[in-house]
Amino acid sequence: MRICAVIIAGGRSSRMGREKALAMVHGRTIVERVIDTLSAQVDTVAINANGDVARFAMTALPVFGDLRIDIGTPLAGLQAALIHAVQNGFDAVLTTPSDAPFLPRDLVARLAAAGQSGAIAASGGREHYLTGLWSSKLLADLETALLQERTPRMQDWARHCHAAVVEWPITSHDPFFNVNTPGELAEAERIAAGLAL
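-> C-alpha cells emitted (197 positions)
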C-alpha cells in the first residue's frame, strides 16, 4: 500500500501568536520533528497550509492549500490531502497536525493494522480526529458530505466512515501532545529535554 503523509497546518495559531509549526522545541522546529517522524513511515510527505506557503520553504516539501476556504474546518485540509493522494496515485493518506512534536514512530503501522478505510489515533481516552489514516477511496464520500447545508465536524466524519479508534498509552508523555500556547511550548521543551529528543 502506497501512503503519503500530509501535515495539516491550516490553523490560525491565534493562541500562540505566531506559526506554531515553526516554533522551536529543543533546537528544532515542531514541523521538522513531525517530518522526521513521518518520513520513515510513509512514501512521501507534503504540507497542507493556507496563506503564504513560502514560510515552509525550508522543508523543501510540496505545500498546497485548502480548496474549500469557506468552511473553516480541518475537513477542508483532509479533502485537500485526499485530492493530493488521488492525483499522485496513493492508496491512503496519513493526516497529522503540524503542532504535535512527539508523534509515535509506529503511527502508520498501528493505524493500518486496524484494517478499516479510516482509522484515528487516541490517547488517555481522548480521540485525535486529525491524526488519522484515510483510504483514498473516501474522497468522493467526503466531498458529498461537504456539500451538506451544515458542514460536518471532523468527529462527525470519523463516525460517518466508521473510523477505527486506535489507542496509544501515555507513559512519560502523551505522544499526541500538541502545542497551542506559549505554556504548552515550554512544556514541550521540558519533555524533549527530558527524553533527549
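Residues 74-87 form the longest helix (14 residues).
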